[in-house]
Amino acid sequence: MSEPELKLVARRIRSFPDFPIPGVLFRDISPLLKDPDSFRASIRLLASHLKSTHSGKIDYIAGHKAGQHPDSRLGDPGTSR
């Protein structure tokens, strides 16, 4: 892993001890998501980690937008049926 990329990503993650309850360390990644360079670095680091731990057997990494169910037939979760 690239040390400069790790530092770039780490600088964009904020820690809040004892939030929301004592003993929990909450990590806020929203600054990371707002900074394109840090976000790209985090994706590269994740891909590198997965390739090295899974012997290069990963072809794709996929995701979906937060708040949307992957099955589009279900519609918007905020609407009633």
TrEMBL record:
Keywords: Cytoplasm, Purine salvage. It catalyses: AMP + diphosphate = 5-phospho-alpha-D-ribose 1-diphosphate + adenine. It is found in: Cytoplasm. Its EC number is 2.4.2.7. GO terms for cellular component: cytoplasm. Pathway: Purine metabolism; AMP biosynthesis via salvage pathway; AMP from adenine: step 1/1. It is an enzyme of class 2 (transferase). GO terms for biological process: adenine salvage; AMP salvage; purine ribonucleoside salvage. GO terms for molecular function: adenine binding; adenine phosphoribosyltransferase activity; AMP binding. Residues 60-81 are annotated as: Disordered. Transmembrane segments: none annotated. It comes from the Eukaryota. Its main location: cytoplasm. Belongs to the purine/pyrimidine phosphoribosyltransferase family. This is adenine phosphoribosyltransferase. It comes from Mus spicilegus. The lineage of its organism: Eukaryota, Metazoa, Chordata, Craniata, Vertebrata.
